[in-house]
Automatic annotation (TrEMBL):
It comes from Vulcanisaeta distributa (strain DSM 14429 / JCM 11212 / NBRC 100878 / IC-017). The keyword Transferase applies. GO terms for molecular function: carbohydrate derivative binding; glutamine-fructose-6-phosphate transaminase (isomerizing) activity. It is found in: Cytoplasm. It is an enzyme of class 2 (transferase). Its EC number is 2.6.1.16. Catalyzes the first step in hexosamine metabolism, converting fructose-6P into glucosamine-6P using glutamine as a nitrogen source. This is Glutamine--fructose-6-phosphate aminotransferase [isomerizing]. Homodimer. One of its GO terms (cellular component) is cytoplasm. The chain holds residues 252 to 611 of 611 of the full protein.
Length: 360
């Protein structure tokens, strides 16, 4: 039941603090230890998924590569053939699938197993096809997701990948006890922070949807871990509000995409980490100079730096940038939701899309 919400999607967006708590509380220590062991002994790691699950894979790739120095690649499941000859015994494949039934991901799992790789599934559905065919399974505990657009299954996938990266970090000696504890503390704070973010931003998002509803295009720009976050934000807007939305690494925007930007063109910036703040400030200025409608998701500590340049500013908590995407994606989900509703579409049943895709 929708429990009083007009759509499952809105209910599921609001359930995220609870879904994240359940996922953290439901961590299977033994299975995580097994997977950490596997990662420590892996030559190479591929993370595969489709759609939103692929975006979670890109975040995982970012964490594994930067925090652990592991040779990791995120790959769209249906493009697995590129890697078939490059995968061997001693490699690990992490297959992310909310439903556990997406045929593209299942076919890729079979092909990589055939090559001798070990497979770890991350799924929300117990005993679904992909977990059944994998060597190890880490479950998200988001509860059933009815809305076609993935929301709470995405944020809980990020939780599982982050916990995995942190545990592997300790085991590999790449993270000190202090760093590990600080990051775990931040992760444990996410449900509470997210509750506040939803309460604080929902009205502002609704107001922004009145602007977005008459636009034909939008860019989502970020750097570093903000790139997959932008990709997921753009996918949500595209699939339920039917607005053409494209994500780019912000640095790449001046190598082509900026040609389209004119007065009022919405450009959504994800600003997350200290390392990229100055470069992003430059990118926001470039867009502002072309009279773009600049929308920024910004940590509180940088709001002053950006305020003059942004048409709309969302002030978000200061939190380690590796954890921040779990919070930042939520107002973007709400933006897609309210824009779809403002345009008169049913966000639970976007045209042409199925919740589980069972044809290649
Ligand atoms: C987007 C969305 C789809 C799914 C994709 C993979 O909101 O829901 O892009 O993420 O079809 O589905 P799973 O995770 O079930 O393999």
């Amino acid at each position: 039941s929708k429990e009083g919400y007009p759509h499952f999607m809105l209910k599921e967006i609001h359930e995220q603090p609870f879904a994240i708590n359940s996922t953290l509380a439901g961590i299977n220590e033994k299975e995580f230890d097994n997977v950490v062991n596997l990662l420590l002994n892996s030559r190479k790691i591929l993370i595969i998924g489709a759609g939103t699950s692929y975006h979670a894979g890109l975040v995982g790739d970012y964490l594994f590569t930067t925090m652990l120095g592991l040779d990791t690649h995120a790959l769209i499941s249906s493009e697995y053939k590129k890697y078939v000859n490059a995968v061997n015994e001693g490699d690990t494949v992490i297959a992310i699938s909310q439903s556990g039934e997406t045929i593209d991901t299942l076919v890729a799992v079979r092909a990589f197993k055939e090559r001798g790789a070990k497979v770890v599934a991350i799924s929300n559905v117990i005993d679904s096809a992909i977990p059944r065919e994998s060597n190890y399974v880490l479950y998200t505990r988001a509860g059933p997701e009815i809305g076609v657009a993935a929301t709470k299954t995405f944020t809980t996938q990020l939780v599982v990948l982050t916990v995995l990266a942190l545990r592997a970090g300790i085991a590999m000696g790449r993270l000190s006890q202090d760093e590990y504890r600080n990051l775990m503390d931040s992760l444990n704070k996410v449900p509470g922070l997210l509750q506040n973010v939803i309460t604080k931003t929902e009205g502002k998002v609704k107001a922004l949807s009145e602007y977005m509803k008459s636009r034909n295009n939008a860019y989502y720009l970020g750097r570093g871990i903000g790139v997959p976050l932008s990709m997921e934000g753009a996918l949500k807007l595209k699939e339920i509000a039917y607005i053409h939305a494209e994500a780019y690494p912000a640095g790449e925007s001046k190598h082509g995409p900026i040609a389209l930007v004119e007065e009022g063109y919405p450009v959504v910036f994800s600003i997350l980490d200290d390392d990229n703040v100055d470069a992003l400030l430059g990118n926001v200025m470039e867009m502002k100079a072309r009279d773009a409608y600049t929308i920024g998701f910004v940590p509180e500590k940088y709001v002053g730096k950006f305020r003059e340049l942004l048409s709309v500013t969302f002030e978000l908590p200061n939190i380690d940038y590796r954890i921040a995407p779990i919070i930042y994606i939520v107002p973007m989900q709400l933006l897609a939701y309210y824009t779809a509703v403002a345009r008169g579409y049913d966000p639970d049943k976007p045209r042409n899309l199925a919740k589980t895709v069972t044809v290649e």
